[in-house]
TrEMBL record:
It comes from Phallus echinovolvatus. This is GIY-YIG homing endonuclease. InterPro entries: GIY-YIG_endonuc (IPR000305), GIY-YIG_endonuc_sf (IPR035901), Intron_endoG1 (IPR006350), Intron_nuc_1_rpt (IPR003647), NUMOD1 (IPR010896), NUMOD3 (IPR003611), WH-like_DNA-bd_sf (IPR036388). Gene3D superfamilies: GIY-YIG endonuclease (3.40.1440.10), Winged helix-like DNA-binding domain superfamily/Winged helix DNA-binding domain (1.10.10.10). Pfam families: NUMOD1 (PF07453). The keyword Cytoplasm does not apply. The gene is orf333. It comes from the Eukaryota. Residues 116-207 form the GIY-YIG domain.
Amino acid sequence: YNHSPKWSKLNKYKNGNLYEKLVKRQNANNFKDNTIKFKTPLGLRHNSISTLTNNNTDPDITNLKSEEDYDLEPYKIWNSKILTEFLTEKKLNSVYCYENLHLDSTRKKIQTDTKNLSGIYLILNKVTLDYYIGSAATNRFYARFTNHLIYFRGSKIVKLAVKKYKLNQFAFLILELFPEVVNRTNNKRLLDLEDFYLKSLLPNYNILTEAGSSFGYKHTEISRLKMKANYSQERRNKIGILNKGKTLSKETIEKIKEKAIIRDKPNYSEQALLNMKKNSKSVILYNLDNTVYGEFSSIVEAAKSVGCSEKTIRRALKTEKNFLKRRFIVKYL
């Protein structure tokens, strides 16, 4: 992406200012060519006006000759001054910027624009300029947005900040797009990208210092005391004697039996049964005189043959002598 920091190419630059070499900024005289009108490989148009320049200043869009000269019609809504100054200070060019998050139209736009995309996002508190950085797998940007800022299922710090400063004082930014569909194979690369942003920008809303890991997190002294109180010896003793010596009434026992009898048995398809058989291990049963009682393709079949539970056979396989019901010796084939 021409206008996105190439954090993944960090190893190419071993000397000099980190941001100066990673973020290629354009001169204000070339603003016409560099204003947001590029397309990503997915054909999505850039939605920000945060193009940076070589003299460390933003282009003054109020002094442009005319909108016709620069074809700015699709970009009537500019970033706020606070957001523009923040991007300039951090030397970032975001792929998408969203403000007025309290509006339904903004939320719908986020959902539409970020569909099937993955990458790195930033949540900015425009009052305190504190921010949170995270990563989103394919088609998960909107889920991250709603979890953190709408439903409060994400960062607890972000939740408390939104409740204090209100949602309209926050901005949601897409910093960089991940060029592939995220899966188990390349997920580590996405986490590495997030980890680099965390270590480079040092967001103070992030508790954890490493992406995808709780390493480095320290509980407060109050939290430690609460955890100790919850798992004190006194509490353990109370739990231990809670049902000690108690017996179930005949009526309760009958109800449990009735529920067990009418419980629906799992109905597996033929394909499911075949798949289970493929993953199962074959066992062999010996009589106590070491003669072979039978070979079975699975523990379930062996259990049916000798009239016991499959759990009984699994327990026998874990013992040293592998005795089963005092009549057989069971072993894996």
